[in-house]
């Protein structure tokens, strides 16, 4: 896991590389980036809803999102059975795990967006 400072340095490095691109490549880069970058507030809102997994789907992490959602749904179902204690336990555990992501949403999305910008930059310079 990278530090906040390292992620910010990565972002600045990518921005400098993009500034050095010719105008037509820079325009192409920004058009692609505009549609692919994610919003930290949307991610945080999806995480805040505590319907575990939705924020993972937002980032395209389908497997992790599916696992979290299944655990959450299993916990809810168990609440209405003779195993309510296990259901409550599952809901508490999944909530605690996702609470960390909620508090780190800004930095997690910044790191995700850096990865997206880096990939788009590579594609743009390969098209030369």
Summarize, please:
The chain is mainly α.
Spell out the blueprint of helices and strands:
Blueprint: H1 4-19, H2 23-36, H3 40-48, H4 54-58, H5 62-79, H6 84-103, H7 105-126
Your description of this structure?
This protein is mainly alpha-helical and 128 residues long. It has one domain. Helix content is 81%, strand content 0%. The chain is built from seven helices and no strands. It has helices at 4-19, 23-36, 40-48, 54-58, 62-79, 84-103, 105-126. The two termini are 33 Å apart. The model has no long low-confidence stretch (mean pLDDT 86).
Give the overall pLDDT as a whole number: 86
Low-confidence stretches: none
Based on CA atoms alone, the radius of gyration comes out at: 19 Å
Distance between the termini: 33 Å
Q: What is the total tally of β strands?
A: 0
- The topology string of helices and strands comes to HHHHHHH
């Amino acid at each position: 896991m990278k530090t906040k400072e390292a992620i910010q340095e990565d972002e600045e490095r990518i921005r400098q590389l993009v500034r050095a691109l010719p105008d037509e490549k820079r325009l192409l880069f920004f058009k692609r980036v505009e549609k692919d970058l994610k919003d930290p507030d949307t991610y945080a809102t999806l995480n805040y809803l505590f319907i575990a997994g939705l924020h993972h789907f937002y980032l395209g992490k389908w497997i992790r999102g599916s696992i979290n959602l299944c655990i959450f749904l299993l916990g809810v179902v168990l609440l209405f059975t003779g195993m309510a204690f296990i259901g409550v336990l599952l809901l508490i555990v999944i909530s605690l795990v996702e609470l960390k992501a909620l508090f780190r949403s800004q930095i997690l999305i910044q790191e995700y967006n850096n990865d997206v910008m880096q990939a788009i930059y590579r594609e743009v310079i390969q098209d030369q």
